[in-house]
């Protein structure tokens, strides 16, 4: 029952070309950077990434994009990531844009074994009617648009049908794990991590600290070990960059930046 894996490289060794990978995290918060670096080193390609967003240009997800390892992204927005945007507009990347709450529910439903669900989110927009560019040609013209969703009236309210999402592998990040794979996340780093874990056939977590089984109080377990296949303890506390630092005084900015590296 011990689920501890020695290295990030060993943890992602089973990932193969063409698989769907669900990534926990929101931008840089809760993103499994060590596992993503190991995935980059593994050489796996033609990957379908499910993530809320790919983060800034220096994120670990962007490194996969820059290396040409990703062929499709399902996420809620592109943001100001120039690599992500360029590959989308140049036709090398298929992008399925999903409202953020709907994306979370698609993963939750997938993990619960629910194949599809109705939601009022997106009714009356291009999400329901179709027409969102999914892929461009290298010349910059639209090669494929999103399809229209089925819309039905439920209790007098128009709702569209959304299909759930599942993944071959989930890569997530937690603060504490026990040897059985039970996880506790830190504050908002919890975000999409549990949802991705439950929606995947295989889940690997990178964690800051591993404790003995039973050391995490039952009420403090955010994700039961039944959803976790392997756990990697980070050798050192990872650098936690701030995506957009906004302070008034330079000294405060320096202090925050230095504390992120500690």
Explain what you see:
The protein is an alpha/beta fold and 262 residues long. The chain has a single domain (1-115, 164-262), classed as Glutaconate Coenzyme A-transferase (3-Layer(aba) Sandwich). It is built from 8 helices and 14 strands. The chain has helices at residues 8-11, 33-42, 60-66, 82-89, 100-112, 126-129, 193-199, 250-260, and strands spanning 4-5, 20-23, 47-50, 70-75, 94-97, 116-119, 133-136, 142-145, 151-154, 157-163, 167-178, 183-184, 200-211, 230-233. The strands form 3 sheets. Strands 1, 2, 3, 4, 5, 11, 12, 13 and 14 form a 9-stranded mixed beta sheet that branches. Helix 2 runs parallel beside helix 3 (60-66). The protein is globular. The model has no long low-confidence stretch (mean pLDDT 93).
What is the element layout, followed by pairings?
Layout: E1 4-5, H1 8-11, E2 20-23, H2 33-42, E3 47-50, H3 60-66, E4 70-75, H4 82-89, E5 94-97, H5 100-112, E6 116-119, H6 126-129, E7 133-136, E8 142-145, E9 151-154, E10 157-163, E11 167-178, E12 183-184, H7 193-199, E13 200-211, E14 230-233, H8 250-260
Parallel strand pairs: 1-14, 2-3, 2-11, 3-4, 4-5, 11-13, 13-14
Antiparallel strand pairs: 6-10, 7-8, 9-10, 11-12
Helix pairs in contact: 2-3, 5-7
